Please model this.
Amino acid sequence: MDSVRSPEWPVAPLGGLAGNSAAARYGTSPVPAPALGRTDQPPAAPTPPYGQPTGAGSPPRAGRPPAAPPVPVKILIAGGFGVGKTTTVGAISEIAPLTTEAEMTTAGIGVDDPGNRSTKTTTTVAMDFGCVTIDRSLKLYLFGTPGQTRFGFMWDDLARGALGALVVVDSARLDDCFPAIDFFERAGLPFVVGVNAFDGRLALELAEIRWALAIGDHVPLVQFDARDRLSVRDALLVVLDRALDRATRDRRA
Model:
């Protein structure tokens, strides 16, 4: 069989209307197709009112400079082993945080002690990384340090270019945070001590923690929850305020 056609629609005579066309079936006049190569142009779109954008892809208005990208600010999240540094970065980061977690093994028994209340089974072996945009002019890049003493050689590299640090503290294991506080005091880097409230409670009052850590009144001491985004945000804003205060005093000097 060479071809198949419907018996209901007869073949149109040469030069006539097709039998299955709307004009032939319903008796209407065919609408002429638009001529190819027409020279007339469609009517121009109305000009938008003053002050309204012309589209997402339109160039900026003449005389108005393009918006500057946000200023990058490097902040360290430091502290002892198992105090909540990785959790802090993950709670606030607007991107999937980069972590270098490795499973804890029996080789770490007696060396890495996360505390009796912790169910921690992994540990950071290099660093954590995340970022958060504060506003159109400021973006924080967060670098979490490893907590074990054997990774202390990395702290100098991670601290290079940082404007400030948040030292995370477990109120039940204050001894683990002394190396971090000593490091930032020697480096002269502005830092804030953030006491992570495990289960919403502190083992000691903030005034007692300040006395035990032997930190001056010029060092902010705050309580926060490493699992809560808004709580972490408030702690980081204190770090920014501390860094800004240091930069202002250095400029006046």
Remarks:
- The chain has one domain: 71-252.
